[in-house]
Every structure is written in C-alpha cells, then in structure tokens.
Design goal:
With 235 residues, the chain is α/β, with parallel strands linked by helices. It contains 7 helices and 11 strands.
C-alpha cells in the first residue's frame, strides 16, 4: 500500500489568465495531519477546492489512493471549507439527519459523530444560537458522517476564542488514530506547529517548501524566508 493517501502532480488553476496555483506537487502521508501554510491569497483554498471537486484544475493531476482522482472519490473525502454548511433553524441532530438521509446513512451515525466532536448535550438548541466554536465542530461532524479517509479543513480556527482553538486542536490531533488523514490550511503558524506532522508552504500559488515538522524548528523564520524568496522569483 502506498504510504501517501493523496498526491498532486504539477497541479495548476488559472482564472482569466491569472495563475492562482502553478505546478503544485504535494505529497500527503496516510494517517497524519498535513498543514498547508501560506499568506492570504497564496492559493490554499483554491488547491483544497480542486481536491474536493469544487473547482476543476486547468492542468496537472490529483492522485488519490494510488489512482487518478474522480468524483467517485468524494465518498471518501469530508471537507469544511469556508463557513460550516448549517441550517441555522435546525438543531445539531436535525442538521445531521438531513445529511444522513441524503447520504443514505443509518441514524446511529448521528450519535457517533456528535460524540466525536463533543456536541451530544446541545438538546433543542438551534444551530443559529451556537457559539463559533460549536458551529465549527458541527461542521466537522457533518464532514465526518461518511467515514472519510481524508478530512479537509480550511482555516478551521478562524474566529475562535483560545478555549475553542484548544478544543479544536485536540479534536484534530485525534483523527489520525482513527484512520483519518487531515489536510489543514492556515496562516496561523503557531497553531499549525502544534497540530501538524508535515507542512507545505505555498506562496503566489507555488510550493516553496514541504517537509516533516522538526521539533524546535523556527517555523516563522522558515515561512518568511519561503515567502520572501517567492516574491524575489516573481519580481
């Protein structure tokens, strides 16, 4: 079995002649947390949207489980990109019930994912009344319903308070033990340093660095160097 769950090979995405992602080659290890880093506008969200089928690549390829990605692979991918897709007038259980009906999953799965994200005690409270952290966790619960092999989280700690960030960090770190590989995009270096096993740094749509995180490594200095070199190359 390939030790990598997902690879991209020279992946590109253009918008009206502008390169959003250029020749991006990533290698995502199974049962790990991969931190996709980059400044705002670097191409992180565009990359994740291509992996989840929300955008079609201009060129290049995505290899999932050793074969070229197809829409059928979405049954093995869960994602939380941008805002959690919630019906704010429904409870946590009702939000999940809608999805289990769509995915033809048993009701027992609702309880399982609520336990995973620690949202079993929300009762009749509607999602619109949830805190930002609770909404994020419910969004992750939705993404976990189909037993994904790959979970994609785009800036999941945005807008969270310190306690919410700590809870989410602990939750994300638990996933590889459950056989779930995580790709986490962020521009908050300190958080990625605490969560990720490997990192890739994107600047101006190009991969400037990819490696395992080394304890004691100054991630901020590394990040700034990669971004600076990218600007020099593009000048």
């Amino acid at each position: 079995m390939d030790s990598h769950l997902l690879r991209t090979n020279r992946l590109c995405k253009d918008f009206k002649g502008q390169h959003a992602v250029s020749n991006l080659t990533l290698s995502i290890q199974r049962n790990s947390v991969y931190g996709l880093l980059g400044p705002n506008g670097a191409g992180k969200s565009t990359t994740l949207k291509m992996i989840t089928g929300m955008l079609r690549p201009t060129s290049g390829e995505i290899i999932f489980e050793g074969h070229p990605w197809s829409r059928g692979d979405l049954s093995d991918i869960g994602a939380l990109i941008e805002s959690p897709p919630l019906y704010e007038n429904l409870t946590a259980k009702e939000n999940l019930k809608v999805r289990t009906l769509l995915l033809n999953l048993p009701d027992s799965r609702i309880r399982e994912v609520l336990e995973t994200v620690s949202l079993t005690d929300t009762g009749h409270k509607r999602a619109g009344q949830f805190s930002m952290g609770m909404k994020q966790r419910l969004g992750i619960a939705i993404a976990l319903l189909n037993h994904p092999k790959l979970l994609i989280l785009d800036e999941p700690t945005n807008g969270l308070d310190p306690i919410g960030i700590q809870d989410l960090r602990k939750l994300i770190r638990s996933f590889p033990e459950q056989g779930i590989t995580v790709i986490l995009s962020s521009h908050i270096l300190s958080e990625v340093e605490l969560i990720a096993d490997h990192i890739g740094i994107i600047a101006d749509g190009m991969l400037g660095y990819e490696a395992e995180i080394n304890p004691g490594e100054n991630l901020e200095s590394l990040f700034m160097e990669v971004v600076k070199n990218s600007k020099k190359a593009g000048a």
